Amino acid sequence: MIVTDAPPSPVHLAGRDGFQAAAARVVDLPGPRPWPVVGNTFQLGRGTAHATMETWARRYGPLFRLRFGPYHAVGVAEPGIIDQLLRHRPVELSRSPRLAKVINETGFAGVFTAEGEAWRRQRRLVMRALTPEIIRTFFPVISTVTERLQTRWRAQAERGERPDVLRDLKCYSIDVTTWLTMGLDIDTLRTATSSLQADVETWFQTVGRRLPQLVPYWHVLRLPADRRSDAAIARLHATVDGLIAGARQEMTDQPHLRERPRNILQALLAARDEPGSEFTDQDVHGNVGVMLFAGEDTTANTMAWLLYHLAGDEAARVAAHAQVDAILGGCLPEDLSRLEGLDYIEAAAIESMRLKPIAPVQGMRANVDLDLAGLLVPRDHLLFLLPRVCATQESRFPEADRFLPQRWLGNDDGTETNDRRSMFPFGGGQRYCPGRYLAMVEIKMVTAMVLASFDVRLDARADPRVDSVSENFAFTMAPDALPLRFWLRR
Questions:
Q1: How far apart are CA 320 and CA 433, in angstroms?
Q2: What's the rounded mean pLDDT across residues 427-450?
Q3: pTM score, two decimals?
Q4: Which of 75, 94, 133, 295 is the most exposed place for a label (fewest CB within 10 A)?
């Protein structure tokens, strides 16, 4: 009797409410007609790929086919399948290899692009520095940086100037994250000559520009944009090297820090220097870069969209002002417990993330054969998750296009009328965003400061398009402009 090994069965992921795929094979799914050779690549548009894919999902269904050059892909906009795909990382699914390669080529490979055991090892260290207990201890520093932002915007309001809100929010996020994870007060908010924020922004633009390219032309041809990127990335590497050198010197001067590190950078260095350590100098270098990038873009863009929504919705703004005045009395929260009482601000943040998620597209690769509610997706196929499609459906969220924070406050009996399972603002599964608690503290702190100190409105004089600010999607989704003006509250 001859026994042969049977091929493994596909991993089955079911949809919700009896959802079934429209076809059993990817090639038989409905989807946009691909162009010869290049597929659907050039149909996406620069900065608008997310909106184009969302349009395709509404036209062709929650599972639809795509092709990018020789690579076949599936767009996914069914919440049950999105949830399960997120939960099956990092084993059955991994991050888009294209994204990881583009980021790693800049020299900042870290926990964000790591997979397998390398990811698990690095993730444990990152999580040590981002627990609620650590953030609670760190709250005075968050207060200090928030006061700096308040002072900056107060001075500009008194002079009748319109602040560069998005730039300032990115500096704020960098300052908070760098202080927490590296123990250093870089203070980009008040250092006009610092290029750090601009260099980090260039890094994001570089990744966003290179990601959709079918051919990595920059390997053989350096365009002016690539030369600017090279200069910015070189400065970032020099900054990171300086941060590491400073931390090493501090640990040499205070040896007890190897046993009891005060921040994630010291923890990374201590792990690197342990006998038999699997960490390398490049692991340390890459993760310091990851901390800079994670602290600049995602939280800042989320805060920007929230302020945009509050500025443009009088009813929500009045309700938010009323809660801040009642709880804080016009002052900044002096401790985290006061901040936690601002449930309307938290609801507004969740509602803003529903309408304007900073990650409207998430790319993955299937590491095994998958069965998505009857659709066989072979190993190595790409999947593009589109969470906003299900988060803006009328069947799941009545008046889905409106900014209604009250939908997250619950009913009088404590129950909710909305399906939180149809939203994925911080991802899901084991790769759930490790900085989510810090991000929510920053979001609520800045929003409380703005509402306590200013009356914020959309400034039609500066930009007549205030009612339709465009979304620009590269690495994350940001407003293309943020025409806000602050008036001091008396």
A1: 27
A2: 86
A3: 0.89
A4: 133
